[in-house]
Give the backbone structure.
Amino acid sequence: MKQHILFIIGLIALTDFFDTVSQLILKSSINSLDWQINSLKKAFRLIWQLLKTSRIWFSFLLSLISLSIWLFVLSKTELNLAFSLDSMRYIMIAFASVIFLKEKVGITRWLGIICVAAGIFLVTMG
Amino acid sequence: MTAKRRLTFKIFLFLIFTDLLETFAQFCFKKSVFSANSLGINNLQDALLFVRTIIPSPFLWMGFLAVLVIFITWVTILSKVDLSVAVPVASFSYITVPLISSIFLHEHISNLRWSGIFFILIGVILVSASSRRQERPA
């Protein structure tokens, strides 16, 4: 039983990891294009530019893998448990943003992110 | 460069819109899957039959449409704010879904869940505040 839980935690960490990498690629691609969107037309043009970069397709692939693992997890365990553990995604995204995107995350933002993650844990457990 | 990374009210509305659409997409996918009986998938043939029965479902296509719109708004959001701001603030649906199901479906919200909603709210406020303060020294 305990092994089963560890297996599920590992899988959820894996889907959150893939999702984080996918978001990182998307965000860094957008950053590298450095585009100001102020109309729908510009948004479409940015997306067109994004679709022409090859790594964006890698990020789509990672999302797809992440989704498949997630659906597998949902079929194997209780929804509450799965969704609460999924809150580790927020911490991963925060670390990834600091390390790879060089975003400045101060104490206020760290506190906020921890509150959000803890809150989601409570909402989904309750 | 930091100037455009500010979380404005408009972007905040975009994030809430994305959240609502996300909830809608989940609802559509669930609806399309449940209309086909998915319980007995044991082999590839069953899986193909399952896919063939859900493809005509209008819910599936509404779900895909919602995902497409979500992608457009999400790219717009990420072009304006930090990833470490957008993702936590996008957790708003964890508040809206229990509140909506409590108001419209009269579902009971436990104390544990209320405290979670409170934590998320505080977290979103802190993250939003941190993205505003960042702009000034630049």
The helical segments of chain B are 9-35, 44-54, 58-78, 83-89, 93-104, 111-133. The interface with chain A takes residues 4, 71-72, 74-76, 78-80, 82-85, 87-88, 91, 94-95, 98, 109-131, 133-134 of chain B (CB under 8 Å). The two ends of chain B are 8 Å apart (CA to CA).
